[in-house]
């Protein structure tokens, strides 16, 4: 199961890199959101989450999952949601004032 999650995380990193290298501001923002989700999956895979184990030591104390990576991922999801919402509002304001989302035009290179 860990192998599938790591491969999926690699695919998401590839997609995020493609989106981050685009010229559209909205695609860059979506690329950062996809990249944070890829990191969440990678942390979950490295934390030893198998899907059937719970982060509580019970009767069988040999099989338990560390709860710290899951707590960090939950905190990171909230923070990345807030940052993505802020970036989207910022992109809306940029579009409202300049009528473009092209990064080259926003930098001032209109004739190149």
Task: Record the SSE blueprint.
Layout: H1 2-20, H2 25-46, H3 68-98, H4 103-107
Helix pairs in contact: 1-2, 2-3
Structure description:
There is one protein chain. With about 110 residues, this protein is an all-alpha fold. It is built from four helices and no strands. Helix 1 runs antiparallel to helix 2. The longest helix is centred in the last third of the chain and has 31 residues, at about 70-100. The protein is elongated and about 65 Å long.
- Spans with pLDDT under 50 lasting ≥5 residues? none
Q: How many separate helices? A: 4
Q: How would you classify the quaternary structure?
A: single chain
Molecular shape: elongated
Q: Helicity, in percent? A: 55-70%
Mean pLDDT: 85
Output the helix-strand order. HHHH
Give the distance, in angstroms, between the N- and C-terminal Cα atoms. 49 Å
* Strand portion: under 5%
Number of strands: 0
How would you briefly describe this protein structure?
With 112 residues, the chain is an all-alpha fold.
What brief labels describe this structure?
single chain; 112 residues; mainly alpha; 4 helices; elongated
């Amino acid at each position: 199961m860990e192998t599938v999650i790591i491969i999926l995380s690699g695919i998401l990193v590839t997609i995020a890199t493609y989106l981050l290298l685009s010229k559209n501001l909205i695609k860059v923002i979506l690329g950062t959101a996809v990249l944070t989700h890829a990191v969440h999956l990678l942390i979950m895979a490295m934390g030893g989450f198998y899907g059937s184990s719970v982060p509580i030591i019970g009767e069988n104390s040999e099989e338990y999952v560390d709860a710290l990576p899951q707590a960090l991922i939950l905190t990171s999801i909230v923070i990345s949601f807030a940052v993505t919402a802020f970036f989207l509002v910022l992109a809306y304001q940029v579009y409202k004032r300049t009528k473009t989302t092209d990064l080259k035009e926003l930098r001032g290179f209109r004739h190149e």
